[in-house]
């Protein structure tokens, strides 16, 4: 995605690190560059808004569920591999048997 205009920070860099921006997991200087990019680039701003809405929806709908510790460890391990640039298999992080045995907690309506 790109608006076709040149930017100090390339659209691909912004989109590659969008969740780091959304989660405030980047240095302030990089956050400032991203904010400037969003001011200049409406396609990236639109993508940012969409991803921000999805995060809020997931938090609202699933934010109270307890995550099994082993699943959290598997997901975090997979994220570490992705961030380090190592190849990651397409195998699901959670197996069907894990879903069947995972604790279910009631959600508030």
Compute the CA-based radius of gyration.
Answer: 17 Å
Tally the structural domains: 2
Low-confidence stretches: 96-100, 104-109
How would you classify the quaternary structure?
Answer: single chain
Shape: globular
Structural class: mainly alpha
Protein name: Mycothiol system anti-sigma-R factor
InterPro entries: Anit_sigma_mycothiol_RsrA, Znf_put
Pfam family, one: zf-HC2
Record the SSE blueprint.
Layout: H1 11-16, H2 18-22, H3 28-40, H4 42-62, H5 69-84, H6 96-101
Describe the structure concisely for a colleague.
This protein is mostly helical. It is 61% helix and 0% strand.
Provide structural commentary.
- With 109 residues, this protein is an all-alpha fold.
- Helices cover 61% and strands 0% of the residues.
- It is built from six helices and no strands.
- It has helices at 11-16, 18-22, 28-40, 42-62, 69-84, 96-101.
- Helix 3 (28-40) packs across helix 4 (42-62).
- The model is unreliable at 96-100 and 104-109 (pLDDT under 50).
Defining traits:
single chain, 109 residues, mainly alpha, 2 domains, 6 helices, disordered C terminus, Znf_put, Anit_sigma_mycothiol_RsrA, Mycothiol system anti-sigma-R factor
